[in-house]
Hydroxymethylglutaryl-CoA lyase YngG (Thalassobacter stenotrophicus), 602 residues
Amino acid sequence: MTQRHPEICEVAPRDGFQSIMAPLPTDEKIAIIRDLAATGCTRIEIGSFVSPKAVPQMADMADIVDGVRDLPARLSALVPNQRGAQAALSAGITDMVYVFSISETHNQNNVRQSVAQSLDGLARIVTDLPARTRLRVDLATAFDCPFDGAIGQGTVLDAVRAVTQIAPHAEVAFCDTTGRANPFVVAARFAAAIALPQTQANTWAFHGHDTFGQGVANAMAAWHSGVNVFDTAAAGLGGCPFAPGATGNTATEDLVFAFNEGGLPTGIDIGLLLQTADRIHALPGGITGSHLRHVPRHRAA
Amino acid sequence: MTQRHPEICEVAPRDGFQSIMAPLPTDEKIAIIRDLAATGCTRIEIGSFVSPKAVPQMADMADIVDGVRDLPARLSALVPNQRGAQAALSAGITDMVYVFSISETHNQNNVRQSVAQSLDGLARIVTDLPARTRLRVDLATAFDCPFDGAIGQGTVLDAVRAVTQIAPHAEVAFCDTTGRANPFVVAARFAAAIALPQTQANTWAFHGHDTFGQGVANAMAAWHSGVNVFDTAAAGLGGCPFAPGATGNTATEDLVFAFNEGGLPTGIDIGLLLQTADRIHALPGGITGSHLRHVPRHRAA
């Protein structure tokens, strides 16, 4: 087995900004994305192509893309349906994140579709996808649903089979939407999915929240099960606006600290990252949750 | 290998209370220790036998012991020297925790002794120890020192060799005094210590802080390396009063959540624990840091 390297996918501009109701200035969003790229971060989820009526914060996506497309990082955008995928492609997005929830109730609440409809949508998107476009599929509520409670492993593996049959080369993410997963279930669920014969050409990501204090521990569990890509938000900004009580993306700085200090460098400069996290923390209306940002700076970086 | 079970050693009454400068009412301390035992917690560090001039908060230890000695939990007390050990034995303590720091600078600051003097003190205590008394040795700054920075693995293993030669049946704890350890170094350091031929009759504990957001992840790393005993403080009360910037014991509720939800029950009732954590959080002058206490109660328990 070749040496593995962890890769951070910064989601503050998507999962973080969407948690702030009042639209932020487009220039400030662009400046933050540029700052994030300057930390050495190689992947940034810069927003989502959704109805501006549903999420007014994302109404300026075309301008955002224009303001950051020269950056060397992989810039992805989230889409919940075919219309969003078309808009993303039109804007020049080449890293697409398609999202749906394992939980029927949450999927109806989040993207107004049944799981079967979301799978149909994925199939249509894959058919139309330009060859150069990379696809990630985010499986939301892959452990726990704010409405239905615990999601069983069998249900998740069924979804993985359906998704990987449609998209055998996609990156697949298990999203701990509520932050209620524990390190043991994270380890077991990824190990089971990665062992499926039909997923051998897929790659894996973990999107974790720190709401229950398990954020870094769950990411470590995913890493040891073979996951290389981790979604986190600088300053711990955000949560899921459709999941009551679910705030708190895992702070990028907390997870980068674990990897960098542990001898698995992420390529991200902690000092620059903490400066950007401070800028994000200062955004009006945002809820943040970081550990590293609160220790004396000379001890953290 | 027999099935392992995690055991929580609750340290809020020692590492937590000592972080509060103004003495708390003895009755309230006793009530909290009794509440902690009622959660199902089987081990509680109820305080330290130290100079009341150095730590006025611990001046009422004899009364505390009298107020809790009927409890079914194992009740331990921390001692930094022979005088403290004598006082603990006189009070009827049968679970003794002897502490010194791997870092010379920190040991001088914390217990006013060199490491060699602390090892001599341990040898004298072991000689005098009644047969029924259980011994834990806490190795403070086993990863990082607030004054000297990173502590190397060789230095720690040298200390482990010295300690286990003196106390071949003791429980040995690596203490992340500053919270700056990462999960990879925790895993490696315990694995190396547990593999030493001369430590085969010792058992192991991890005393972690969450200051850098690594608390639960570090405990998980220790668990997977073979550690069964975890020091945590309900509500995350406290820190090390002699380590600048080091606040934040890992919250008991955050770690109990990981184990209980992960199918490794600690025997602790999360609902009762959260009630006690609320009571601890309400203590005047305390600094707490918990995740689980902030999520809607029906989701946590």
In short: The interface with chain A takes residues 178, 180, 182-185, 210-217, 219-221, 244-245, 251, 254, 257-258, 261-264, 290-292, 295-296, 299-300 of chain B (CB under 8 Å). The two ends of chain B are 31 Å apart (CA to CA). Chain B has a mean pLDDT of 94.
